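Task: complex structure prediction.
Instruction: return structure tokens for all chains below.
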Amino acid sequence: MAMIEASKYRKSLNRTNELPLLHLVMLFQFVSMLLLTFRDGVMDAFSFQMSLYLPIGTFLGLKIISKLFPVDRCIFILTAFLSSLGVVLLRAVLKTTADASDQALFLLIGYFLMILSAFLIRLVRAWEKLSVIAMPLALGFLCLPFVFGSPSATADSWVKIGGVQFQPSELIKPVLILVLSAGFSRKEGFRVWWRYVLFAGLACSVLFLQPDLGAVFLYFIITVCLFYAGTGNYKVTIAVLLIAVLGVAVFLKLLNSIDAFSYLASRIAIWQNPFSGAYEDARQIVQGLISIASGGLFGSGLGLGSADRVAVVASDYIFAALSEEFGILFTICVLIVYLVLLIRGTTIAMNARSRFHALTALGCVFALTSQMLLIVCGNLHLIPLTGVTMPFVSGGGSSMLSSMIQAGILLGISSVNAEDEYDDLMRITRGQWREEE
Amino acid sequence: MAVDLFQSAALMLRYGFAAAGALIAGRALYMTIRDGGRASSIRAQARETGVIANLIVKFHGGEIKKYTLNVEGMVGAGRVCDVRIARAGLDRRHFFYEIVNGNMKITAIGHSRIRIDDTQELRETIVRPGREFIAGDAVIRFVVLRQKKAPISPMTKRAYGNTISLVLKDVKPKRVIRRRVRRRGDD
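Output:
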């Protein structure tokens, strides 16, 4: 291999400066929270503190994680932007500061978990062995709602233990991605893969019985994506998708006769015709659509909207609140940010040197973006609302922590890639190898 | 009065937020496109990125060919394989390899088998650097490429394993001892 002149290629080999992006995000965090400080006529101490803590947290978080590992800084900054957008929206939309302060606390815990997961994905190698223990544990954890269930309006997927409420399906999502990636990265064939397919099937079945159909759909999509990416077996993938479509068709036919899914039948009926006035529950969809429309191009102004009239606005209808407060132009920019996360995550997966890392990165980014698409399409009345959350933005600790863990895994893999790239550059610019036998 | 001021500020700032959103999304998109170009540039300049070993394959007819190996991958005659060795009697997916601690861990896929010599058929084996094994009709030798500088990547470190210290030791220039050779007639 010929020696490469480093100076000749210096410009093409430099990474893009991330400081302008960091400064823009910090400015947004500061101005938006400072504006909300004066919303109610008197100075709101929480919003004022957040106007300082959010930009400082983003800056320090980036400095700390960059010192530890050579991570993809753009992903970290965009994650911080989306997470802080959630805190801003919760404070702007809701009357009390309780939800926003909880979200800020979960954001802080999320940063720690992000660093921890980045560290673990770099450190731990024996994921195949760990998956043997992780699979039964994860299934047991998913079954917790049957024992300690805290029933919500539709699904019994919440657990309440000692005043702490969480959703196991959200927290198990990163485990599912890691286990399936470890399994499908092996190339021995169905002799090995069957146990991972069985695990995913059992996890979907447990969620189906709760019934948390949004999570079932998400788990199924992640499994199919990782199976195809890991095995390249398009025949089995297409067959599974066709069987799933047939299964859904049969399920929809039988829906009215199953008591446990009666809420789903009414939800589909509402979705088909929300403006008929026959359904009291249709108010949520109608208010959500009115909220999105009333935002216009530039929004109604931060803190001036009335998205709090939409039921469950903090988690399920956060996209409607975003559209109303900031307008459709800003909302499109947020969707572009998710697109950038998808592109960068896919690039990380493509540049990964091990199959496990490639599949894990792909699984994480696919889970985040498909979850975002589900909630956006649900809010826009394109599909029935599935009850999943908007990653990083929606209120709720389980969703925030799960999203941050997935982002941490992505960052960890990006740092491994950067070190591999550094080794390659040293090899290119400083000389060749020496063969040894 | 204060509420009116807040409302005016909120109404004015919505244009600012839209501009900030556009700038954040635009900058992130620009960074992504540029970094993507950078990654392509590195790949174009170094086609052998991630290579840490070679497979030297001796075909049935006596022809010898060299293939490069990354940390892990699949070897076979099919297009899906990371290392495609055609015309050597290998199956479409013959074996999966992983380089750990400077050795090559081989796992045969499906009904394929590896032979260390003509008699012993193996499903799994560990090949040390410089050793030969037989897959299909080809005799394959595994050769590790030592770097002049110790790698920083955890993946590459794991591949070299304990041998990294040996690599570092070897990098130091050795003192060359010149022996005087006796020639005929010196006495």
